[in-house]
Here is the input.
Amino acid sequence: MQNASRIFLTKLLLFTLLILQSIHCQADIISLERADSLFSERSFKEAMELYEENYTQGVYSPAMLLKMAFIAEGTGDNEGATLYLGKYYKHSPKPQVIDKIKSLTKQANLEGYEVSDSERFFLFLVEYDQWIIGSLSILLIISIVLVFVSSIRKTKSPVYWPSALLIVSMFFANNFLKNSRSALITNSPSLILSKPTAAGELIQRVEPGHRVKIVGTEDIWYEIEWKDKMAYIKKENVSIL
Here is the structure.
């Protein structure tokens, strides 16, 4: 009974923290609503300042990224527009986005934009990860309450396996429902080498616009996947998506 009580109090504390986090998120939403209002009024400079403030804090939506790309392109910042569209593509892989990036970068062929059906399904889960985690949290609280009530009433032996299953599910949702780390090549030209050194064999010289999956880091280099092979590129030549 004491163990059940401790578990219940622990989960109650976690639930309280989730509520506090949601209040913070609500403040971010209000800020984005103000930015959207400025965008609708065609006050693009002011809207962009609010968007960038949220973006640097990791608060953004696909719609916001499209608006940032629109503003950036309108001011002649094609590099910025490409970056925001690359970020948007990570959440919503659509052929039209690739066509627009090709237009901005003047690249006929771009690497790193292929998405399989399984990857699309995973992206769908990632997009709704907060809903999934929130639903699991509510179910876990209900489960803990039922265990607690059963322990007090002693009408029947408490059943712990649903709570254990939900805890494991939340662990995997928190730790594995995340996009793979990718980056957009932004410098011209960028060298992709076989080794993390300037003496490495040149695999390809590329222009901005290509997407790469980051596998690891080594000093000033990123280890990346390039055409199904491991390669290296300088960190200064890419922007993390």
Q: What stands out?
A: The helical segments are 2-40, 44-56, 62-74, 78-91, 95-105, 117-127, 129-153, 161-176.
